[in-house]
# Entry
Amino acid sequence: MRVVGMGLVIAIVLECGAGMAFGADVYSPLRLYQGTWRVRSGHGGDAGKVTVLSNECARIGQFFGCQQTVDGKAEALILFLPYGKPGHYYTQAVTVEGRAMGRGDLEIEGSRWTYSSKSDDGGKQTWYRTTNEFSGTDRIHYEQAESSDGVKWVVKGAGDEERGGGGKK
# Structure
């Protein structure tokens, strides 16, 4: 779910497996964002770059939020609000400068979590999609893509995350 600074969109690992259940608390899957993750980029000019991502998450009334800190610097607060069927959420990132980045959507289908959004720049629309594919409770492969028509996608970033370890390796 990478949403942090200058187009950096950090996929966050959740401790979930393919058989995740939502239960009475619709936010239970999102609670697993809590913690520190090592993010290794595996695409383009950033291949091999390691970033440390920390998430501090909590429920506040009807909302659930995670403050994302990247390499020791607070970057954004990501808010979630359920809508429709289980596993669907509206998302909104708010930067430390107080700027809201625009509503997005999260759809959870087993071990695949898809974040999507769209922007309109003077009549030119761009679609964005970050797909997280989980393997176990502590690992994720993410892929970020863009599209000018919502059909044909171009991969702009990809990498892997691992729970734990505050230091870079």
